[in-house]
């Protein structure tokens, strides 16, 4: 039991995040090296269905159900989880490096006196110890970090680890919890663009930059994104210019994405932007400046006017979808 | 109102980072206050300006060179600073948080602001750890902050939306881009910064026992370099690229 791994699931209204299934995937790989088993915890109000879905990955699932857990807050989650983690003496705790995972991991670390490796892109066990691989300084270097505490806590970069396969043998247990007064009041949860793919979890990301020339042309990015089921992103330049909101920004002071396909449109490829997308598997760049630095990291580059190229590209994608 | 701001002095976002013998080479590169901390510092100034009274006190843990970053923030308007001077760079957030919390206890601020993460090690842990050590609430990735009746109402950015969170003060609020537009230091501010008090403390003088190193960097390496691929000219290349994405790269 002392070598077991706990994955903390993340969901919105019972809908599991992809990063949770990826967490189970890597946990299962590490469990053999640690000599332990993988458990999953899911918290909410009425999350039995999510717990059942998680059990489909062949793992024992502990679920906590309480009105105070309906909306995520670090305090309610930590009050429920700390006794479980202490009681079961987990060796490793894994969750996604999302805003929620980052917030919760930091809180649990403080309350459990544990260390955290944030936003990991690789994990291994060496001599019973967790060694995390993580980009630092916006990906300008890659670090190997030892997490010396028990439990060790890690958050994993979305879209980086292979998701777990469904298998038999899972089980579900309801864990009672007592949650006292909370430090925070969640007044409101504002969902924007429901159903749209989250930038950090998307398989394909299409981003636009200053080469689009004017704010109205950003709709071409949205149309291209829609044509291939991608999430739409942006460079810092057009976020700072007020064309699109900051939640769309890809780069050092925005989001880090690692999709299988990244299409950069009218983005020159400043070092801050490259920091946020250079770990994408395949990069396509469209820019009218043949010397733009983005071409140095692009697998496929098109030197052309973005406004003329995108409509043609949308046509091609539509043809493929129809074929 | 006394507002504490936690600042970090990091390699500038434009700096080129080299790796040698498994270590980061940071000598000779430009350092700056982490951009997220600048939003925190700006917000602190606005809070004090709106109240018409109070002070902004900066806190930093790090080596002597960090005084330059402290002076930069003093030039923007903060009133004074507390610098916990470490021998080298402390990279374990729990140890940094322990030192910050001990230094903050001596000042008893009404609210503590910081950036939601440093742009060097990208952990995003220190602010939360400070709050937990002080036993006060925390809200991270905040894009809007309103203070009234001893409470803070924060707009927090999350995947796919936002949360509106209310906490009692004192609390630690960690700033995200979008919270405000930081001002540039004026010449007058730069001159004034030279005379503003900076209290220096050694970690041993804080009266705490530091936790053992929990998060320990073993080595660093350069990221795998990406090779430039095929390059085409003219908009009509779109069809060839789409074909290659399907048949060669197999990503669509």
Verbal overview:
The complex is a heterodimer of chains A (323) and B (252). Chain A has helices spanning 18-34, 48-55, 74-88, 99-112, 218-227, 236-240, 271-277, 306-322, and strands at 5-8, 11-12, 15-16, 38-44, 60-65, 92-96, 116-120, 122-126, 129-136, 141-147, 152-156, 171-174, 184-191, 204-208, 231-234, 261-265, 282-287, 300-303. With 323 residues, chain A is an alpha/beta fold. In chain A, helix 2 (48-55) links the parallel strand 4 and strand 5 (60-65). The N and C termini of chain A lie far apart (52 Å). The model of chain A has no long low-confidence stretch (mean pLDDT 95). By secondary structure, chain B is an alpha/beta fold. Chain B has helices at 35-51, 67-76, 93-105, 126-134, 187-193, 237-247, and strands at residues 2-6, 9-11, 18-20, 23-25, 31-33, 55-62, 80-85, 111-115, 138-148, 151-158, 161-168, 172-175, 198-201, 215-221, 230-233. In chain B, strand 9 (138-148) and strand 10 (151-158) form a beta hairpin.
Biggest beta-sheet profile of chain B: 9 strands, mixed
Q: Mean of the pLDDT scores of chain B?
A: 96
The value of Rg of chain B in angstroms is 21 Å
CATH architectural category of the largest domain in chain A: 3-Layer(aba) Sandwich
Q: Which regions of chain B contain 5 or more consecutive residues with pLDDT less than 50?
A: none
Oligomer: heterodimer
Number of helices, counting only DSSP H or I runs of 4 residues or more of chain A: 8
Q: Write out the strand line-up for the largest beta sheet of chain B, numbering strands in chain order.
A: 11-10-9-12-8-1-6-7-13
Strand order across the biggest sheet of chain A?
7-11-6-1-4-5-12
In terms of DSSP E residues, the strand content of chain B is: 25-35%
Question: How many distinct folded domains of chain A?
Answer: 2
End-to-end C-alpha gap of chain A: 52 Å
CATH superfamily of chain B: HUPs
- Count of helix runs of chain B: 6
Q: What is the CATH level 1 assignment of chain B?
A: Alpha Beta
Number of strands of chain B: 15
Tell how many strands the DSSP assignment of chain A holds: 18
The run of helices and strands of chain A is EEEHEHEHEHEEEEEEEEHEHEHEEH
